[in-house]
Amino acid sequence: MAAPCVSCGAAASYRLFLAGRVSFAREQGLWKAAAAGLQTGTRCQILRLKHSPAVTTKKNVAALRRESYTVDFIKKQIEEFNIGKRHLANMMGEDPETFTQEDIDRAITYLFPSGLFEKRARPIMKHPEEIFPKQRAIQWGEDGRPFHFLFYTGKQSYYSLMHEAYGKVLHVEERQDQLRAKGLFSEKPKTKDPIGSRWLIKEELEEMLVEKLSDQDYAQFIRLLERLSALPCDAAEEEFVGRFRRTVTVQSKKHLIEPLQYDEQGMAFSTGRGKRKTANAEAVVHGHGNGKIEINGVDYLLYFPVTQDREQLMFPFHFLDRLGKHDVTCTVSGGGRSSQAGAIRLAVARALCSFITEDEVEWMRQAGLLTTDPRVRERKKPGQEGARRKFTWKKR
Amino acid sequence: MAPGAVLPRLLGAGVRAAPQSRAAPRGRTLGSAAPAAAREPERGSDLSARILSEPLKHADFFNVKELFSVRSLFNARVHLGHKAGCRHRFMEPYIFGSRLGQDIIDLEQTATHLQLALNFTAHVAFRGGIILFVSRARQFSHLIESTARSCGEYAHTRYFKGGLLTNAPLLLGPRVRLPDLIIFLHTLNNVFEPHVAVRDAAKMNIPTVGIVDTNCNPCLITYPVPGNDDSPPAVQLFCQLFQTVVTRAKEKRRQLEALYRLQGAPGPPPADPTAPGAQAGLGVDHSP
Which of A96, A101, A194, B207 has the most other CB atoms within 10 Å of its CB? Predict the structure, then answer.
């Protein structure tokens, strides 16, 4: 994007130059028409840009945060921002109507190149809503009466939310009682999506309510929502609960699962690789079998005399309840007995991914079966006996 | 039984003929002078003075007597107190007797006190005062908040922060207006100690109305109403009474304002003591 920037930069500088000359000429007492209002505006804007509140650095925000902003002040800031945006678009030679935030950022980085390493210290021009934190307006009218019926509690939004949620719980329980009285009640087991959504965290709730909360308040609220979601709700209550849930990207979806391969007899098999410390393993898991594991041509009982290593091999199958159902053939090299066992375990788990459902893959991932153990041997440092062990300290 | 004879100490507190001085700020504001004291123009101040003085000329302007009877209090189990061991010494005048170890509250006295309390509440609501319903019983929290919301007033049934009334400019805002009346549906908090707001309201000169059970201390409450605060029917009855009274008073205020505005400043008010009950009680079902 260098060429267009340079060209519009040249045009902009030409325009700036022109504007400067025109305004200078006007100072000698020429006519002031309405159309020239834009030029004077440009001059004012250019002058203002030197100490403009619209283009602020993030550093000032922390100092500004302690003040309270009136509604008029924020409105004025928004007007100034919009006018400044249009002037910036004119300067860059672009259409003011379709000047987006990315264009503004690009223009500012072009016009005010900064060599500062801290990104937040560089000049920015953003909408005042993003710069000034959201504030509470005055909570009462002219006669002094507060607007909200829970104003005198101090935490009106939080308590009104609790009131609303509890009201919904009572309503649902009342409906249940009515159904039970008529004999139409049926115990429906509630199935909620276990993976993929979470309750919103305390900071998000604070931001939503524009109020400070304590940990106990937050815990109470979540408990009440859990209670509400455990009851049979209809669409309105589900929507209410849904307002406080956020989606969580399911990590295992990013994990690519190999499709099953088939050998000459038509039996399904799958391969997987695993690493642990310096051991490398490659495992082939067959679809049907009776739990035989062969490592480097040797049975696993002979290769791993220690029970602990055999338990490591067993873990992925035990987790998926497929203990005697698969045959494994694997090769391993490097490392010691424990790291070889860990490497084979990882390889087998990865190979098993092709045989199971996505939910089970996610559960395996959460159990830690699909993660390469990043621990490696730490180097020895000079002046010390080992990686951490220091030489014996002698007093004299 | 005239209220003056039974409760001499309350003579000056309730029905007073002289209206509040116009120059004084309406309500209690802290921190600075009244917000825009000269809201209404000069000729309007006569109107407002007339409107405000009108209810004070009648003993029961809002006809609160018809809202309840001793029978309806009995049916709502208001007379049931706690066991004799929980009795508070200062509640002894209000207790009728004790039956199988359970104290019974004298409903005749309750009726008198309740009538005074409801009348006072109505007057405060008529004058546009802020009413705060306070309770710390979790069982009735939702009911009380709904009651307060439905009559356009305020509720506080949650954890009461220390300096809420005494340090209000810091906790609630610089020029906040404090409540003009606090109604306690439960005078005790969850550990059976007197609610902090009772003492704080007395400190801040805020009148209080409170339902006092046999284990409560009625001392600092301006208009105590001896009665049961633990049974759901009793609490529901009290909530309903307060709601009716506040709504009725506000409705009456609106009616009087409209009437006087139509008539102009001079002219005697056509309202008489029986009419308010008839007019305002259109939607209210009479107590049995």
Answer: B207
For residue A36, count other CB atoms closer than 10 A to its CB: 16
| Vertex A221: Cα angle to A216 and A223 (nearest 5) | 95
Q: What percent of chain A has pLDDT above 70?
A: 80
User: Which parts of B41-101 are beta strand (E)?
Assistant: 80-83, 95-99
B287, B68 contact by CB (below 8 A): yes
State the ipTM, two decimals.
0.79
pLDDT, greater one: A131 or B248: B248
Separation of alpha carbons A168 and A294, rounded Å: 60
Question: Which of B35, B128, B155 is the closest to A150 by Cβ?
Answer: B155
List pLDDT tens digits, range A306-347: 999 999 999 999 999 989 899 999 999 999 999 999 999 999
For chain A, what is the total number of helices (H) and then of strands (E)? 14, 10
A-to-B residue pairs, Cβ atoms closer than 8 angstroms: 59
Give residue for tokens 């902090």. B196
> Which residue, among A68, A148, A152, would best test binding to B if mutated, counting the most B CBs under 10 Å from its CB?
A152
Q: Which residues lie across from A328 on neighbouring strands?
A: A285, A293
Q: What are phi and psi of B99, to 5 degrees?
A: -120, 120
B208: tokens are 């209080």
Q: Tell me the C-alpha distance between A103 and B128, whole Å.
A: 55
Q: Is B185 helix (H, G, I), strand (E, B) or coil?
A: coil
How much is the pLDDT for B124? Answer: 97
Question: What does the block give as tokens for A376?
Answer: 């490696």
Question: What DSSP string runs through A328-347?
Answer: EEEEEESS-HHHHHHHHHHH
Of A62-66, A134-138, A165-169, highest mean pLDDT: A165-169
Which residues of chain A make contact with B172, given a CB cutoff of 8 A?
151-152, 154
**pLDDT higher than 80, residue B27:** no
SS3 B255: helix
- How many helices (H) and strands (E) chain B has is answered by 9, 10
User: What is the spatial distance between Cα B273 and Cα B59, in angstroms, rounded to a whole number?
Assistant: 8
Chain A interface includes B7 (CB < 8 A):
no
Residue B173: what residue type?
G
pLDDT (tens digit per residue) in B82-125: 999 999 999 999 999 999 999 999 999 999 999 999 999 999 99
Question: What residues form DSSP beta bridges with A276?
Answer: A279
Q: Average pLDDT for residues B23-49, to the nearest whole number?
A: 57
How distant is the Cα of A384 from the closest Cα of chain B, in angstroms? 58
The amino acid that residue B288 corresponds to is: P
d(CA B180, CA B158): 19
A142 vs A258, residue with greater confidence: A142
List CB contacts (< 8 A) between A146 and chain B: 130, 154, 176-177
pTM: predicted TM-score of the whole model, two decimal places: 0.66
Instruction: Over range B14-38, report the average pLDDT.
Output: 47
CB A335 within 8 A of CB A343: yes
Select the residue of B29, B146, B156 nearest A144 (Cβ to Cβ): B29
CA atoms within 13 A on the CB side of A157: 12
Residues B213 and B229: beta-carbon distance below 8 Å: yes
